[in-house]
Amino acid sequence: MVTGPPSDAERVAALRELLPATGAGIYLDTATRGPLPAEAAEAMREAFEWDIRVGRVAPGREEDLAQRGAETRAVVAAVLGATDPDAIVLTHGLGDALELARRAVGEEAAVHHVDPVSGALVGTGGVRVLDASLSIGALPLNVEQLDADAAVVAGDRWLLGPEGIGALWLRDGGRARALPERELSRQLLLGLARSVGWLAMFVGLEWAHSRTAALAARLAAGLENAEGVEMVTPSPPPAAIVSFRLSNWPAEDAADELNHRTQALTRPLAGPDIVRASVAWFNTEAEIDRFAEAVAELGRHTAETLPRRPRLVVLQGG
Description:
Layout: H1 8-17, E1 26-27, H2 38-54, H3 61-80, E2 88-91, H4 93-105, E3 111-112, E4 127-131, E5 148-154, E6 166-170, H5 173-178, H6 186-223, E7 229-231, E8 241-246, H7 251-262, E9 264-265, E10 267-269, E11 274-278, H8 285-299
Parallel strand pairs: 1-9, 3-4, 4-5
Antiparallel strand pairs: 2-6, 5-6, 7-8, 8-11, 10-11
Helix pairs in contact: 2-6, 3-6, 6-8, 7-8
C-alpha cells in the first residue's frame, strides 16, 4: 500500500515526542527559553559521561573542542544566512555577545530586530548592532542582507539550544577572528550544534518558519475581536510574538490564571502590563485555539465574576 507524506498534524505529533517539554503544557514562552530537544540533551549527557569515565585531559581533547566549535559556528552561520562561519564568535550567552559586539564596533546599545514587548519588526536597517535573538529560528533571516555591522543571538530561544551559549556575527570577518576566543564547554558546543542541526535538517527551517507564522496569525485572529482584550502586536503578527492586555486583569494575574486553566506558559510583562505569548512551530492548532478561548473568557470577566473551573493537573511519569 502506497502512502503519502505525513500530514502536518502527524509531523508535529512525531516531532513533539522528541521535545518532551511540549507535553507539560502549552509552551508559549520560547521568547524566554525554548524546549530542549531530547537529541541535544542526550549528546550533552554522553559528553558529561565521557568526562566522568575518561577525564577531561585525554589526548586529543583540545582538537576535539576546536572541531566542535567549528561545527557549531557553521550551523549558526547557516541559520543566520552568513556565508563565512569564521565571522561567527561563540559566546557565554547573549550578554557576552553584546559586550563583544560593543568592543568590535564601538556601539553601546543593540537594536532589537523584533521588539520584545510588541513583537513588531523594528531593526530592519541602518543599525550598528542588531539583536536577532527573537527572530533567529522563528522567521527567515539573512543578516548579510540587513544593514547592520553586527548581530547577536541567544542559543536557547527558537534555536532550542542549551542555556549559557550565544553567538556574535560580524560583517567584518577579520574583526571576528581578532576577538579573543571564549572557552566554552564541550557540552554547550555539542548541545547547540545538535539542536540547530536537528532544527535545520530534521525539522526543516522553511517549514518551521511558515508554520510559526501561521500559528501566530491564528492566535492573533482568535484574540482580535475578543471583548476586554487589547491587542499590542500588529496584525498580522510580523514575527512569533503575540502580546495583549486584558482590561480587567493585571498581566501577572492573567498569566497565572491562564496557566491554571490551560497549563499555558506565557510571560507577563509587568511594566507595560501585557501578557506575551511566543508561538513556535511545535505548538498545535488545538493548543492555540484553547489558549485563545481562555483569554477571551478572561476578557469577559473580572477575577470575581470568572466561573471557577477545576485546575488542570499534569501527571508526571507513566
